[in-house]
Amino acid sequence: MDKLQIVGGKRLNGDIAISGAKNAALPILCAGLLTSGDLDLTNVPRLHDVRTMLRLLEQTGLKVTQDDEHVVLNGANITSLEAPYELVKTMRASILVLGPMLARFGEARVSLPGGCAIGSRPVDQHIKGLRAMGADITIEGGYIHAKCAKLQGTRIHTDMITVTGTENLLMAAVLAEGETILENAAREPEVVDLANMLVAMGAKIDGIGTDRLVIQGVDALHGTRHAVISDRIEAATFLCAVAATGGDIRITNTRTDIFDVALDKLREMGVQLTVEGDTIRARMDGRPQPVSFRTTEYPGFPTDMQAQFMAVDTIARGPSRVTETIFENRFMHVQELNRLGASISTEGNTAFIEGVERLVGAPVMATDLRASASLVIAGLAAEGTTIVDRIYHLDRGYDRMEAKLSAVGADIVRIK
Ligand code: EPU
Predict the structure, then answer these.
(1) Sign of the CA dihedral with 136 first, then 142, 143, and 144 last
(2) Ligand 1: does its nearest atom lie under 6 Å from the Cβ of 295?
(3) What is the mean pLDDT of residues 294-306?
(4) Do you find a cis peptide bond into 299, omega within 30 degrees of 0?
(5) What is the pLDDT of residue 366?
Protein backbone atom coordinates (compact mmCIF):
# COMPACT_ATOMS: atom_id res chain seq x y z
CA MET A 1 0.00 0.00 0.00
CA ASP A 2 1.43 3.39 -0.96
CA LYS A 3 2.30 6.02 1.63
CA LEU A 4 3.33 9.64 1.46
CA GLN A 5 6.44 10.84 3.22
CA ILE A 6 6.41 14.55 3.94
CA VAL A 7 9.19 16.61 5.46
CA GLY A 8 7.37 19.68 6.69
CA GLY A 9 8.31 23.31 7.09
CA LYS A 10 8.86 24.24 3.45
CA ARG A 11 7.14 27.31 2.04
CA LEU A 12 5.21 26.75 -1.17
CA ASN A 13 6.03 28.88 -4.21
CA GLY A 14 4.88 28.51 -7.81
CA ASP A 15 1.94 27.54 -10.00
CA ILE A 16 -0.55 24.71 -9.58
CA ALA A 17 -3.04 23.83 -12.32
CA ILE A 18 -6.38 22.59 -11.01
CA SER A 19 -7.96 19.49 -12.58
CA GLY A 20 -11.58 18.82 -13.49
CA ALA A 21 -13.96 18.20 -10.59
CA LYS A 22 -14.37 14.60 -9.46
CA ASN A 23 -17.92 15.21 -8.29
CA ALA A 24 -18.90 16.72 -11.63
CA ALA A 25 -17.06 14.14 -13.74
CA LEU A 26 -18.73 11.13 -12.09
CA PRO A 27 -22.37 12.05 -12.88
CA ILE A 28 -21.35 13.45 -16.27
CA LEU A 29 -19.79 10.10 -17.23
CA CYS A 30 -23.04 8.36 -16.23
CA ALA A 31 -24.94 10.68 -18.57
CA GLY A 32 -23.20 8.75 -21.36
CA LEU A 33 -25.88 6.11 -20.73
CA LEU A 34 -28.61 8.57 -21.71
CA THR A 35 -27.81 8.77 -25.41
CA SER A 36 -26.69 6.72 -28.39
CA GLY A 37 -24.64 9.72 -29.54
CA ASP A 38 -21.02 10.56 -28.67
CA LEU A 39 -20.32 12.37 -25.43
CA ASP A 40 -16.99 14.11 -26.00
CA LEU A 41 -15.58 15.15 -22.62
CA THR A 42 -12.49 17.18 -21.78
CA ASN A 43 -10.90 18.18 -18.46
CA VAL A 44 -11.78 14.73 -17.05
CA PRO A 45 -9.55 14.33 -13.97
CA ARG A 46 -7.10 11.41 -13.73
CA LEU A 47 -8.48 9.80 -10.61
CA HIS A 48 -9.04 6.34 -9.27
CA ASP A 49 -12.80 7.02 -8.94
CA VAL A 50 -12.98 8.08 -12.58
CA ARG A 51 -11.23 4.85 -13.61
CA THR A 52 -13.68 2.85 -11.49
CA MET A 53 -16.65 4.62 -13.08
CA LEU A 54 -15.29 4.01 -16.57
CA ARG A 55 -14.80 0.33 -15.73
CA LEU A 56 -18.39 0.11 -14.51
CA LEU A 57 -19.70 1.86 -17.62
CA GLU A 58 -17.65 -0.36 -19.93
CA GLN A 59 -19.25 -3.40 -18.30
CA THR A 60 -22.64 -2.09 -19.42
CA GLY A 61 -21.46 -2.01 -23.02
CA LEU A 62 -20.75 1.73 -23.12
CA LYS A 63 -17.83 2.34 -25.47
CA VAL A 64 -15.02 4.35 -23.85
CA THR A 65 -12.22 5.98 -25.84
CA GLN A 66 -9.72 7.76 -23.64
CA ASP A 67 -6.69 9.90 -24.27
CA ASP A 68 -5.56 11.25 -20.92
CA GLU A 69 -8.09 13.92 -19.82
CA HIS A 70 -10.11 13.56 -23.00
CA VAL A 71 -12.80 10.86 -22.87
CA VAL A 72 -15.33 9.98 -25.55
CA LEU A 73 -18.30 7.82 -24.57
CA ASN A 74 -20.74 6.09 -26.84
CA GLY A 75 -23.85 4.40 -25.50
CA ALA A 76 -25.28 3.02 -28.77
CA ASN A 77 -24.83 -0.61 -27.72
CA ILE A 78 -25.69 -1.03 -24.06
CA THR A 79 -25.89 -4.73 -23.23
CA SER A 80 -26.03 -4.88 -19.42
CA LEU A 81 -28.14 -2.88 -16.99
CA GLU A 82 -26.28 -3.82 -13.85
CA ALA A 83 -23.88 -2.16 -11.40
CA PRO A 84 -22.32 -5.07 -9.49
CA TYR A 85 -21.51 -5.13 -5.79
CA GLU A 86 -17.76 -5.50 -6.48
CA LEU A 87 -17.65 -2.01 -8.00
CA VAL A 88 -20.37 -0.26 -5.98
CA LYS A 89 -18.72 -1.27 -2.70
CA THR A 90 -15.56 0.57 -3.75
CA MET A 91 -17.39 3.69 -4.99
CA ARG A 92 -20.80 4.85 -3.80
CA ALA A 93 -21.18 7.23 -6.75
CA SER A 94 -21.94 4.10 -8.84
CA ILE A 95 -25.55 4.69 -7.74
CA LEU A 96 -25.57 7.43 -10.40
CA VAL A 97 -26.17 4.86 -13.16
CA LEU A 98 -29.60 4.06 -11.70
CA GLY A 99 -31.51 7.10 -13.02
CA PRO A 100 -30.06 7.07 -16.55
CA MET A 101 -30.46 3.29 -17.02
CA LEU A 102 -34.02 3.32 -15.85
CA ALA A 103 -34.95 6.38 -17.91
CA ARG A 104 -33.53 5.11 -21.20
CA PHE A 105 -33.96 1.34 -20.90
CA GLY A 106 -36.76 0.87 -18.35
CA GLU A 107 -34.69 -1.32 -16.06
CA ALA A 108 -31.65 -1.26 -13.75
CA ARG A 109 -30.04 -3.54 -11.18
CA VAL A 110 -27.71 -1.61 -8.93
CA SER A 111 -26.06 -2.92 -5.81
CA LEU A 112 -27.29 -1.00 -2.76
CA PRO A 113 -24.33 1.00 -1.38
CA GLY A 114 -23.54 0.06 2.21
CA GLY A 115 -22.45 2.41 5.00
CA CYS A 116 -19.43 4.64 4.62
CA ALA A 117 -16.59 5.89 6.83
CA ILE A 118 -18.09 9.40 7.05
CA GLY A 119 -21.72 8.46 7.70
CA SER A 120 -24.51 6.00 6.98
CA ARG A 121 -25.36 7.71 3.70
CA PRO A 122 -28.60 6.01 2.67
CA VAL A 123 -30.02 6.40 -0.86
CA ASP A 124 -33.69 6.35 0.17
CA GLN A 125 -34.37 9.70 -1.51
CA HIS A 126 -33.10 8.45 -4.87
CA ILE A 127 -35.48 5.49 -4.55
CA LYS A 128 -38.38 7.57 -3.28
CA GLY A 129 -38.07 9.96 -6.25
CA LEU A 130 -37.88 7.21 -8.85
CA ARG A 131 -40.87 5.43 -7.28
CA ALA A 132 -42.82 8.70 -7.49
CA MET A 133 -42.01 8.71 -11.20
CA GLY A 134 -43.65 5.33 -11.54
CA ALA A 135 -40.72 2.93 -11.18
CA ASP A 136 -41.37 -0.41 -9.55
CA ILE A 137 -38.44 -0.86 -7.16
CA THR A 138 -37.59 -3.87 -5.03
CA ILE A 139 -34.53 -4.52 -2.88
CA GLU A 140 -33.39 -8.11 -3.03
CA GLY A 141 -30.10 -9.84 -2.40
CA GLY A 142 -28.46 -6.50 -1.70
CA TYR A 143 -29.53 -5.09 -5.07
CA ILE A 144 -31.92 -2.31 -6.03
CA HIS A 145 -34.00 -3.72 -8.88
CA ALA A 146 -35.91 -1.00 -10.70
CA LYS A 147 -38.31 -1.42 -13.59
CA CYS A 148 -40.75 0.77 -15.47
CA ALA A 149 -42.45 1.00 -18.83
CA LYS A 150 -41.77 4.73 -19.12
CA LEU A 151 -40.98 7.12 -16.25
CA GLN A 152 -43.69 9.72 -15.68
CA GLY A 153 -42.98 13.31 -14.77
CA THR A 154 -44.17 14.35 -11.31
CA ARG A 155 -43.38 16.69 -8.41
CA ILE A 156 -40.67 15.41 -6.08
CA HIS A 157 -39.71 17.07 -2.82
CA THR A 158 -36.69 15.34 -1.27
CA ASP A 159 -36.62 15.26 2.55
CA MET A 160 -33.14 16.78 2.56
CA ILE A 161 -30.86 18.37 -0.01
CA THR A 162 -28.95 15.58 -1.70
CA VAL A 163 -26.30 16.11 -4.37
CA THR A 164 -26.22 12.71 -6.09
CA GLY A 165 -29.94 12.29 -5.36
CA THR A 166 -30.68 15.46 -7.35
CA GLU A 167 -28.34 14.30 -10.13
CA ASN A 168 -29.92 10.85 -10.35
CA LEU A 169 -33.47 12.22 -10.45
CA LEU A 170 -32.48 14.91 -12.94
CA MET A 171 -30.98 12.31 -15.29
CA ALA A 172 -34.15 10.24 -14.93
CA ALA A 173 -36.47 13.21 -15.51
CA VAL A 174 -34.87 14.40 -18.75
CA LEU A 175 -36.19 11.31 -20.55
CA ALA A 176 -39.46 10.93 -18.59
CA GLU A 177 -42.86 11.64 -20.04
CA GLY A 178 -44.10 15.13 -19.18
CA GLU A 179 -42.98 17.57 -16.54
CA THR A 180 -40.95 16.78 -13.43
CA ILE A 181 -40.43 19.34 -10.69
CA LEU A 182 -37.53 18.70 -8.32
CA GLU A 183 -38.06 20.72 -5.15
CA ASN A 184 -35.30 21.15 -2.55
CA ALA A 185 -32.78 20.38 -5.29
CA ALA A 186 -29.04 20.62 -4.62
CA ARG A 187 -27.45 23.77 -6.09
CA GLU A 188 -23.82 22.66 -6.02
CA PRO A 189 -21.77 23.83 -9.02
CA GLU A 190 -21.26 20.18 -9.96
CA VAL A 191 -25.05 19.71 -10.27
CA VAL A 192 -25.15 22.86 -12.41
CA ASP A 193 -22.36 21.51 -14.62
CA LEU A 194 -24.28 18.28 -15.20
CA ALA A 195 -27.53 20.18 -15.90
CA ASN A 196 -25.80 22.47 -18.40
CA MET A 197 -24.40 19.47 -20.24
CA LEU A 198 -27.80 17.77 -20.31
CA VAL A 199 -29.26 20.92 -21.88
CA ALA A 200 -26.51 20.79 -24.52
CA MET A 201 -27.65 17.19 -25.16
CA GLY A 202 -31.18 18.41 -25.86
CA ALA A 203 -32.74 18.25 -22.38
CA LYS A 204 -35.24 20.88 -21.28
CA ILE A 205 -34.39 22.12 -17.79
CA ASP A 206 -35.43 25.36 -16.12
CA GLY A 207 -34.19 26.73 -12.81
CA ILE A 208 -30.60 25.48 -13.15
CA GLY A 209 -28.63 26.68 -10.13
CA THR A 210 -31.78 27.07 -8.00
CA ASP A 211 -33.45 24.67 -5.58
CA ARG A 212 -36.37 24.11 -7.95
CA LEU A 213 -35.58 22.32 -11.18
CA VAL A 214 -38.37 22.06 -13.75
CA ILE A 215 -37.75 19.45 -16.41
CA GLN A 216 -39.80 18.77 -19.53
CA GLY A 217 -39.03 15.23 -20.63
CA VAL A 218 -37.91 14.65 -24.21
CA ASP A 219 -37.95 11.43 -26.28
CA ALA A 220 -34.20 11.23 -26.86
CA LEU A 221 -30.97 13.09 -26.16
CA HIS A 222 -28.05 13.55 -28.53
CA GLY A 223 -24.30 13.65 -28.02
CA THR A 224 -22.37 16.81 -27.21
CA ARG A 225 -18.98 18.19 -26.21
CA HIS A 226 -18.37 19.31 -22.70
CA ALA A 227 -15.44 20.45 -20.54
CA VAL A 228 -15.82 19.32 -16.93
CA ILE A 229 -15.90 22.20 -14.45
CA SER A 230 -12.74 22.89 -12.44
CA ASP A 231 -12.47 21.21 -9.03
CA ARG A 232 -13.24 23.80 -6.33
CA ILE A 233 -12.38 21.36 -3.55
CA GLU A 234 -8.95 20.63 -5.01
CA ALA A 235 -8.32 24.39 -5.42
CA ALA A 236 -9.34 25.09 -1.82
CA THR A 237 -7.12 22.24 -0.62
CA PHE A 238 -4.00 23.81 -2.17
CA LEU A 239 -4.99 27.24 -0.86
CA CYS A 240 -5.26 25.73 2.63
CA ALA A 241 -1.81 24.21 2.14
CA VAL A 242 -0.27 27.64 1.52
CA ALA A 243 -2.26 29.10 4.42
CA ALA A 244 -0.56 26.52 6.64
CA THR A 245 3.00 26.67 5.24
CA GLY A 246 3.25 30.25 4.04
CA GLY A 247 4.51 31.14 0.58
CA ASP A 248 3.24 32.51 -2.70
CA ILE A 249 1.32 30.28 -5.10
CA ARG A 250 -0.86 30.75 -8.15
CA ILE A 251 -3.78 28.43 -8.73
CA THR A 252 -4.65 28.23 -12.43
CA ASN A 253 -7.57 26.70 -14.38
CA THR A 254 -9.94 27.54 -11.55
CA ARG A 255 -13.36 29.20 -11.22
CA THR A 256 -13.36 31.72 -8.45
CA ASP A 257 -17.11 32.37 -8.52
CA ILE A 258 -17.96 28.89 -7.25
CA PHE A 259 -16.20 28.94 -3.91
CA ASP A 260 -16.52 32.47 -2.56
CA VAL A 261 -17.24 31.18 0.91
CA ALA A 262 -13.88 29.39 1.11
CA LEU A 263 -12.03 32.40 -0.31
CA ASP A 264 -13.62 34.60 2.37
CA LYS A 265 -12.45 32.20 5.09
CA LEU A 266 -8.93 32.14 3.63
CA ARG A 267 -8.84 35.96 3.72
CA GLU A 268 -10.00 35.81 7.33
CA MET A 269 -7.05 33.49 7.99
CA GLY A 270 -4.71 36.18 6.68
CA VAL A 271 -4.09 34.82 3.18
CA GLN A 272 -3.70 37.63 0.65
CA LEU A 273 -5.70 36.65 -2.41
CA THR A 274 -5.60 38.25 -5.83
CA VAL A 275 -8.17 36.98 -8.27
CA GLU A 276 -7.61 37.47 -11.98
CA GLY A 277 -9.69 35.57 -14.54
CA ASP A 278 -9.28 31.86 -13.88
CA THR A 279 -6.24 32.39 -11.65
CA ILE A 280 -5.93 33.00 -7.92
CA ARG A 281 -2.68 34.19 -6.40
CA ALA A 282 -2.34 33.41 -2.69
CA ARG A 283 0.36 34.90 -0.45
CA MET A 284 0.77 34.03 3.18
CA ASP A 285 3.24 34.92 5.93
CA GLY A 286 3.24 33.87 9.55
CA ARG A 287 0.70 31.88 11.51
CA PRO A 288 -2.91 31.94 10.32
CA GLN A 289 -5.76 33.60 12.19
CA PRO A 290 -8.32 31.10 13.48
CA VAL A 291 -11.59 30.71 11.56
CA SER A 292 -14.79 29.14 12.80
CA PHE A 293 -17.42 27.75 10.47
CA ARG A 294 -20.33 25.41 10.05
CA THR A 295 -20.73 23.16 7.02
CA THR A 296 -23.94 23.43 5.00
CA GLU A 297 -25.15 22.75 1.50
CA TYR A 298 -24.07 25.09 -1.33
CA PRO A 299 -23.65 28.05 -1.25
CA GLY A 300 -22.66 27.47 2.39
CA PHE A 301 -19.34 26.13 3.62
CA PRO A 302 -18.76 22.71 1.95
CA THR A 303 -18.35 19.59 4.06
CA ASP A 304 -15.69 18.51 1.54
CA MET A 305 -13.45 21.40 2.72
CA GLN A 306 -14.05 20.97 6.44
CA ALA A 307 -11.06 18.74 7.24
CA GLN A 308 -8.59 20.84 5.23
CA PHE A 309 -9.60 24.11 6.92
CA MET A 310 -9.46 22.40 10.30
CA ALA A 311 -5.86 21.37 9.56
CA VAL A 312 -4.99 25.06 9.14
CA ASP A 313 -6.90 25.98 12.29
CA THR A 314 -4.70 23.59 14.30
CA ILE A 315 -1.78 26.05 14.03
CA ALA A 316 -3.81 29.25 14.18
CA ARG A 317 -3.15 32.10 16.64
CA GLY A 318 -6.21 31.29 18.70
CA PRO A 319 -9.16 28.97 19.22
CA SER A 320 -11.80 28.10 16.64
CA ARG A 321 -14.88 25.96 16.37
CA VAL A 322 -16.02 23.79 13.47
CA THR A 323 -19.50 22.27 13.18
CA GLU A 324 -20.25 19.52 10.68
CA THR A 325 -23.93 19.34 9.74
CA ILE A 326 -23.94 17.17 6.59
CA PHE A 327 -22.37 13.88 7.68
CA GLU A 328 -22.62 12.35 11.15
CA ASN A 329 -19.10 10.93 11.35
CA ARG A 330 -16.81 13.26 9.46
CA PHE A 331 -14.29 14.00 12.22
CA MET A 332 -12.00 11.01 11.87
CA HIS A 333 -9.08 13.28 11.01
CA VAL A 334 -9.31 14.82 14.49
CA GLN A 335 -7.46 12.04 16.31
CA GLU A 336 -4.85 11.84 13.56
CA LEU A 337 -4.27 15.62 13.66
CA ASN A 338 -3.89 15.32 17.43
CA ARG A 339 -1.16 12.72 16.82
CA LEU A 340 0.74 15.53 15.08
CA GLY A 341 0.41 17.71 18.17
CA ALA A 342 -2.86 19.48 17.42
CA SER A 343 -5.20 20.23 20.29
CA ILE A 344 -8.73 19.38 19.17
CA SER A 345 -11.64 18.06 21.18
CA THR A 346 -15.09 17.20 19.93
CA GLU A 347 -18.55 17.36 21.39
CA GLY A 348 -21.22 15.87 19.16
CA ASN A 349 -20.88 17.43 15.72
CA THR A 350 -18.66 20.31 16.88
CA ALA A 351 -14.88 20.34 17.08
CA PHE A 352 -13.05 22.80 19.34
CA ILE A 353 -9.55 23.64 18.13
CA GLU A 354 -7.06 25.36 20.43
CA GLY A 355 -4.44 26.51 17.92
CA VAL A 356 -0.91 25.42 18.81
CA GLU A 357 2.37 27.06 17.83
CA ARG A 358 3.66 24.07 15.90
CA LEU A 359 2.85 20.54 14.81
CA VAL A 360 5.46 17.77 14.91
CA GLY A 361 5.66 15.05 12.24
CA ALA A 362 4.46 11.52 13.04
CA PRO A 363 3.00 8.49 11.24
CA VAL A 364 -0.72 9.01 10.61
CA MET A 365 -3.49 7.09 8.92
CA ALA A 366 -5.80 8.43 6.22
CA THR A 367 -9.43 7.42 6.79
CA ASP A 368 -11.27 9.03 3.88
CA LEU A 369 -10.56 11.29 0.97
CA ARG A 370 -10.79 14.75 2.54
CA ALA A 371 -9.35 13.56 5.86
CA SER A 372 -6.29 12.42 3.88
CA ALA A 373 -5.95 15.87 2.36
CA SER A 374 -6.06 17.46 5.81
CA LEU A 375 -3.25 15.18 7.00
CA VAL A 376 -1.13 16.17 4.01
CA ILE A 377 -1.68 19.86 4.82
CA ALA A 378 -0.79 19.27 8.47
CA GLY A 379 2.29 17.26 7.44
CA LEU A 380 3.47 20.09 5.17
CA ALA A 381 3.24 22.51 8.10
CA ALA A 382 4.69 20.19 10.76
CA GLU A 383 8.31 20.05 11.88
CA GLY A 384 10.07 16.88 10.80
CA THR A 385 8.74 13.87 8.95
CA THR A 386 5.12 12.79 8.60
CA ILE A 387 4.16 9.51 6.98
CA VAL A 388 0.57 9.38 5.71
CA ASP A 389 -0.57 5.78 5.36
CA ARG A 390 -3.49 4.43 3.27
CA ILE A 391 -3.30 7.13 0.63
CA TYR A 392 -5.46 5.13 -1.75
CA HIS A 393 -8.20 7.37 -0.34
CA LEU A 394 -6.30 10.40 -1.65
CA ASP A 395 -5.81 8.86 -5.08
CA ARG A 396 -9.56 8.42 -5.41
CA GLY A 397 -10.11 12.18 -5.58
CA TYR A 398 -6.85 14.11 -6.13
CA ASP A 399 -5.01 14.07 -9.42
CA ARG A 400 -1.30 13.47 -8.60
CA MET A 401 -1.39 15.60 -5.47
CA GLU A 402 2.21 14.89 -4.47
CA ALA A 403 3.51 15.84 -7.94
CA LYS A 404 1.61 19.13 -7.85
CA LEU A 405 2.87 19.90 -4.34
CA SER A 406 6.51 19.00 -5.00
CA ALA A 407 6.46 21.23 -8.09
CA VAL A 408 5.82 24.19 -5.76
CA GLY A 409 8.57 23.27 -3.31
CA ALA A 410 7.03 20.76 -0.90
CA ASP A 411 9.24 17.90 0.26
CA ILE A 412 6.78 15.10 -0.39
CA VAL A 413 7.38 11.66 -1.92
CA ARG A 414 5.29 8.59 -2.53
CA ILE A 415 6.68 5.44 -0.96
CA LYS A 416 5.57 2.24 -2.65
N1 EPU B 1 -29.02 11.45 2.48
C2 EPU B 1 -30.05 10.63 2.90
N3 EPU B 1 -30.76 9.94 1.95
C4 EPU B 1 -30.49 10.03 0.62
C5 EPU B 1 -29.45 10.88 0.20
C6 EPU B 1 -28.74 11.58 1.16
O7 EPU B 1 -30.31 10.50 4.09
O8 EPU B 1 -31.17 9.37 -0.17
C9 EPU B 1 -28.25 12.23 3.48
C10 EPU B 1 -26.79 11.77 3.55
O11 EPU B 1 -26.63 10.65 4.40
C12 EPU B 1 -26.10 13.01 4.06
C13 EPU B 1 -26.91 14.15 3.40
O14 EPU B 1 -28.16 13.56 3.04
O15 EPU B 1 -26.22 13.10 5.45
C16 EPU B 1 -26.28 14.75 2.17
O17 EPU B 1 -25.79 13.72 1.32
P18 EPU B 1 -25.70 13.85 -0.25
O19 EPU B 1 -26.65 12.90 -0.87
O20 EPU B 1 -25.78 15.27 -0.67
O21 EPU B 1 -24.22 13.31 -0.51
P22 EPU B 1 -23.77 12.48 -1.76
O23 EPU B 1 -24.54 12.92 -2.94
O24 EPU B 1 -23.73 11.05 -1.42
C25 EPU B 1 -21.97 14.17 -2.64
C26 EPU B 1 -20.49 14.14 -2.90
C27 EPU B 1 -19.75 14.08 -1.57
C28 EPU B 1 -20.12 15.32 -0.77
C29 EPU B 1 -21.65 15.38 -0.58
C30 EPU B 1 -22.12 16.63 0.13
C31 EPU B 1 -20.38 13.05 -5.05
C32 EPU B 1 -19.99 11.86 -5.86
N33 EPU B 1 -20.18 12.98 -3.74
O34 EPU B 1 -22.28 12.96 -1.94
O35 EPU B 1 -18.36 14.11 -1.87
O36 EPU B 1 -19.50 15.29 0.49
O37 EPU B 1 -22.29 15.31 -1.86
O38 EPU B 1 -21.73 17.76 -0.55
O39 EPU B 1 -20.81 14.04 -5.59
C40 EPU B 1 -16.07 13.78 -1.46
O41 EPU B 1 -15.85 14.20 -2.60
O42 EPU B 1 -15.14 13.60 -0.61
C43 EPU B 1 -17.44 13.48 -1.07
C44 EPU B 1 -17.74 12.71 -0.02
Answers:
(1) positive
(2) no
(3) 98
(4) yes
(5) 87
